[in-house]
Amino acid sequence: MTKSSxxxxxxxxxxxxxxxxxxxxxFSRNNHWSKYSYLYGASSxxxxxxxxxxxxxxxxxxxxxxxxxVSQHENKRHTFATMDSEVDKLCxxxxxxxxxxxxxxxxxxxxxxxxxTAIIATARxxxxxxxxxxxxxxxxxxxxxxxxxxxxxxxxxxxxxxxxPEILEKIDSDIWKRPSNTPxxxxxxxxxxxxxxxxxxxxxxxxxxxTFLDLGFNSNYSIPNVQPDxxxxxxxxxxxxxxPKAALLNHFALMNNAYSIxxxxxxxxxxxxxxxxxxxxxxxxxxxxxxSIGALGPMVTKSTIFLPSxxxxxxxxxxxxxxxxxxxxxxxxxxxxxxxxxxxKLPPEQQHNHIKKAMTGGAxxxxxxxxxxxxxxxxxxxxxxxxxxxxxxxTFQNFSxxxxxxxxxxxxxxxxxxxxxxxxTNGNMVPFGTPGELLIHGYLKMxxxxxxxxxxxxxxxxxxxxxxxxxxxxxxDGYGNHVGRLKEMIIRGGENLFPKEIEYFLxxxxxxxxxxxxxxxxERMGEEVCASVILKEGATVTEADIKAYSxxxxxxxxxxxxxxxxxDGFPMTASGKVQxxxxxxxxxxxxSSPT
Length: 595
Known about the structure:
Number of strands: 29
Number of helices: 20
Radius of gyration: 24 Å
Strand content: 15-25%
């Protein structure tokens, strides 16, 4: 294979004329190494020294009057120019409270205009935005604020059942016992100095949003020389300790990966031909895919983003899709299932839509879901994307012209400029088509886990390969497939849940002796959380009691849907290890045939 033919790999038009079975053989046919699971996403389109702030500034200068963001639930619409004004206000106020280059700003809220504004404002000032799940309770919030050393926190007063001041007060009861608009001095969260509530009410020791913005009204700020490889976003991801780890992602990785996703989706070519797109974003912005495809991808293509609701609402999502004529939809399989269940109930005259392409990730998409989507939206194509938070996030993705069979049987084609290999337990590459652990190398790797050098070294080895913990198969034609998880991760509706964290929490119950948490299949959510519990001698506790104990202490989606009190202990291996696979099999039988 010549060098020029290799460069045609990621040229979408060229792919139509090349036999993909030959594309990613990196060596000659007679080379011994050509049979091993190694792929490289060669591309003639070079990586660029992007920063989030720089990309946004380009969009403002080139398309100031184009709509940038529409928030349906807030009834707000912004062009790139008006959004720039909102970003400027936030930057001035961040500067007024003394935030410096590299400081961490936490954002603990659902999707909204302020969230998007904060993504850009923190990037422009060289701050690091710490994304915090709005469903987090006191224990989870405390861990994230302390680990990331958050100095300033943006949040709401209330959302759904969450009362955010009360949750903060559970962490430190003295947090609000200070005069308004003065720095917080918390013994429990020592770095935290400022809390801003997006509220009209005044809370002692905190700012409401308008008061905060007023601080910067007459002030100016200087923009630091932000470098592309600087950390800019912290995303929390579960780890082997049972506590979320703080993955620090950088401008260069995030923006080049967002560009690659848009290119593979065909949006870059469409933009060059004058075709504009409207992105419907039902995914949370605190999620790696929500951030990348819901904010950064549309930014790099100067497209419009629509936020249907703060928290996913299938009815509002369908309303936005149809009335705003959105062309791109993305989300987890759960989001697609719930959205389609609403759409199919609409009268025929209301089912007119403009969807051209849909992206699904966060969990394996079943063939049944793809077939149903194709029948419901015959003019659209649903494509898969695969990756993880630590890879910013996409490593494999389908092409728009992939066959339905290929889309349903793989997780996509190796992404541009990305290296991948599959190894056995000894770290040796396995032959193509053989399952093993997926390792990733390239520009898209995280900077590391913030404040956790040990875990960083466990994940990124001395040769620079990132160990995903995913069981994967690579094929000679450049495609790959996810066949399992080496880690015991549960993926519930696109949320990555680590059993150890839930086990540690449930073991804090005074009546519980041992806990094993695992996933069981669920048609709607992909997987549901299931717990097998051994009680302390003489204790009497019901499933309802355990759920009540969990409410308000851990996020609702981590509370097991199924809880079984085991009277005969756990099934064990000969070496004394609990057989979670056996527990899962038993649970599935119990769920399908309740007595």
